[in-house]
Design a protein that fits this description.
Number of domains: 2
Distance between the termini: 39 Å
Low-confidence stretches: none
Oligomer: single chain
Largest sheet: 9 strands, mixed
Order of helices and strands: EHHEHHHEEHEHHHEHEEEHHEEEEH
Number of strands: 13
Strand content: 15-25%
Mean pLDDT: 96
């Protein structure tokens, strides 16, 4: 008996608030288990997606920055793709570049031209290819990377402004309009991809995951014109939708982490963790999906704030720990700390650090514990 297929559709730079306001995403939500408080490890793609594929933080895997793809400890951390390949899956990724996810375990690892390729047409062809394999009893794993939001932000923001350009931060309406236009492209893409999935009857025997690696700022905080500089929720809080024919659609507001995705997939497919490799930081969310209660875990995130330099640093210098109610941020580059009451201050505007709250020392100990783990 073949195991269920796995399809991951990753919307690079997808903001949660845009997804919540989208008829297309809400149509997907109506048939999915939707995690509305899903926190990414890295507010940039490379660190974020290596953490997803390994189920572990970059503090342990070695991939903790823009520069550290090749530092991924593949002898110590086994990836989702390797597990699936060992279980006779055909594995294919189509990506924006070769650095985004670990390569090991893929039968095919293709890179699209983010400025020229029609990703809807390209990815429909890939869906047809894996559907033919599925009809012949070959389980498959397909990773589809939608990169057009990233491309637009790169060309229209990152190449035009720096993190301290007043022209950018004084024109939030224009920034929002620009982002909304790019997000509409993602909606159109998803609509086409799901039409193809339904046409090919792939929903019947597949686990389909629609996710974002990180959000994109539109000028909320001076010093970050897009993403990758800070650890605020507009880039850290992402969306994760899981669709399977034996899942009951619902929204789960409990905080989860994107490092929990792979443990959940393997648990769902009844694939055991390999004891020859290190255990993951993530946990399976399958009990939560099935209506059981599980402990909420601390979400750790980190990035390298470039400040006024053209390139981010080699090592992270900004980090945070988060619960569904509280966030502690440590800006190592200037030794400042921030504490936010996320329930009453979701835009993280009132820094409560130093006001004597007990949660401050609790979160600081958690941050030190995770940051120092390697």
């Amino acid at each position: 008996m073949t195991k269920k297929n796995v399809i991951i559709i990753m919307i690079d730079g997808g903001r949660l608030d845009s997804a919540l306001d989208s008829p297309i995403f809400n149509k997907i939500k109506s048939k999915a288990v939707f995690f509305s408080q899903s926190i990414t490890y890295g507010p940039h793609t490379i660190a974020a997606m290596h953490a997803v594929f390994s189920g572990s933080y970059g503090t342990r895997t070695g991939t903790n920055s823009y520069w550290s793809t090749f530092k991924f400890k593949k002898d110590r951390f086994k990836t989702l793709t390797e597990y699936l390949k060992e279980n006779n899956y055909y594995t294919h990724a189509d990506l924006i570049n070769e650095l985004v996810v670990p390569k090991q375990g893929f039968d095919n690892f293709t890179v699209h031209d983010e400025t020229k390729d029609d990703l809807t047409a390209r990815h429909k062809e890939l869906l047809l290819d894996v559907a033919k394999r599925a009809y012949n009893k070959q389980s498959f794993f397909l990773y589809l990377h939608y990169s057009n939001i990233h491309t637009g932000i790169m060309n229209q923001v990152l190449k035009v402004y720096n993190n301290f350009s007043k022209e950018f931060f004084e024109n939030k309406k224009e920034n929002q309009r620009r982002y909304d236009t790019l997000f509409k492209g993602a909606e159109k893409y998803l609509e086409g991809i799901f039409e193809e999935i339904e046409k090919l009857l792939l929903e019947k025997n597949s686990l389909i995951i629609v996710m974002s690696d990180h959000g994109v700022g539109v000028g909320e905080k001076f010093g970050e014109r897009a993403y990758g500089a800070f650890c605020y929720d507009y880039t850290l809080r992402t969306f994760t939708y899981l669709i399977a024919d034996d899942f009951t659609p619902k929204e789960i507001s409990q905080q989860v982490r994107t490092i929990d995705i792979v443990p959940t997939i393997l648990d769902y497919l009844d694939i055991k963790w390999d004891p020859k490799y290190e255990s993951p930081d993530g946990v399976s969310l399958l009990p939560l999906i099935q209506g059981k209660k599980i402990q909420e875990n601390i979400a750790y995130s980190e990035t390298g704030n470039p400040l006024d330099r053209k390139e981010p640093p080699k090592e992270p210098n900004t980090m945070s720990v988060r619960t569904s109610k509280w966030k502690l941020i440590y800006n190592q580059h200037n030794d400042t700390k921030e504490l936010y009451d996320l329930e009453n201050d979701p835009k993280e505007e009132k820094n409560l650090f130093g006001t004597g709250l007990e949660i401050e020392s609790i979160l600081w100990k958690e941050l030190e514990k995770i940051h120092n783990k390697s």
